[in-house]
Amino acid sequence: MTTERNSMNERFELSDLVADIGGTHARLALVDRGCQMRDAQTFACADFNGLSDVIHEFLKSAGNIYPKRAAIAVATPVSGDQINFVNRQWSFSQKTLQKDLGLEQLVIINDFKALALSLPLLEEKDRRKIGGGSPVPGAPIALIGTGTGLGMSGLIRSQEGWIPLESEGGHATFASVGEKERSVCRMLEKQFGHVSLERLLSGPGLVNIYYALSKLEGLVPEQYAPSDITRYALTGTCRHCLDALNFFCGALGAASGNLALTLDARGGVYIGGGMVTRFVDFFEQSAFRHRFENKGRFRNYVSAIPTYVITAANPALKGLAAALI
């Protein structure tokens, strides 16, 4: 029994911790040095007071394992020791967290940087192509994703391999096209002052779109959550929810096309995050790809760039495992 326990402890000590911490969910797993993942679990961030509490709960549920290395992705900028989340009232010190967990190595990176690192590891079954185009080998790859917020990243090829980009592009100013988008933008500008991409292209952004479209028609909006709007749109229960989801998909296409041009992303543009996978069939038939390609004199250039929805479960955890190699 002692020999078996010692063997198990040795195996556990060779396991690394990977954690993808978003504004709504925390996804954690253990990964061995061969990059085999196990014990993946998802927790609701609202159930915990902070990051350390989530990690301790996960390690306890996984058998009181104490890894020596950890890579953690956070949905916020990473600069300096103190980390403050944007969409959740959490903060932590990297040094304190490393000491608390007894880690020899702790890597903290932006969540979309971690997701970007996973892109070269994805297989065909892990993604769904939307529209035409073919990737150019070695060309830059772009990443945009919607969830509690809006994230952007990308990969640039170098002699040493792929270099992930850190970005806060989700907070760039939303560029409206057409009278409907301009009307929605004006209404949100009164509410928020600055209308960023994230104010529309996120879960809360979908609510903002629904609210604004309803008010523009002189209606009193319902108190819907993003999941309500999506469900009522897909079932045809609410026309205004359908209008909001169509608006969302078109605007995401325009923003994705802008990112493709900005990064010269002829290697493809990937759509990540937790939203689009819930309505990917609708998304494929939406105005997303039309708006993606609608770039005037550069229509042919952008039309040649493929777009993909990431369908893999917990892809950022794979990127985090790669960050520890």
Short description:
Helices cover 40% and strands 22% of the residues. By secondary structure, the chain is of the alpha/beta class.
Describe the protein in words.
This protein has 325 residues and is α/β, with parallel strands linked by helices. The chain is built from 12 helices and 13 strands. The chain has 2 domains: 2-116, Nucleotidyltransferase, domain 5; 132-305, Hexokinase, domain 1 (3-Layer(aba) Sandwich), CATH 3.40.367.20. It is 40% helix and 22% strand. The strands form 3 sheets. A 6-stranded mixed sheet has the order 8-13-12-9-10-11, sandwiched between helices. A hairpin with a 5-residue loop joins strand 2 and strand 3 (37-44). Helix 4 (111-118) packs across helix 12 (315-323), helix 5 (178-192) packs across helix 6 (203-216) and helix 6 packs across helix 8 (239-263).
Q: Kindly state the percentage of residues in helix.
A: 25-40%
Sheet having the most strands: 6 strands, mixed
Radius of gyration: 21 Å
Number of domains: 2
Order of helices and strands: HEEEHEEEHEHEEEEHHHHEHHHEH
Strand order of the largest sheet: 8-13-12-9-10-11
**H/I helix tally:** 12
Count of strand segments: 13
The chain-level structural class is alpha/beta
Give the distance, in angstroms, between the N- and C-terminal Cα atoms. Answer: 33 Å
Q: CATH top level of the largest domain?
A: Alpha Beta
Mean pLDDT metric = 92
Query: What is the overall silhouette?
Result: globular
Proper CATH architecture of the largest domain: 3-Layer(aba) Sandwich
Low-confidence stretches: 1-12
Strand content: 15-25%
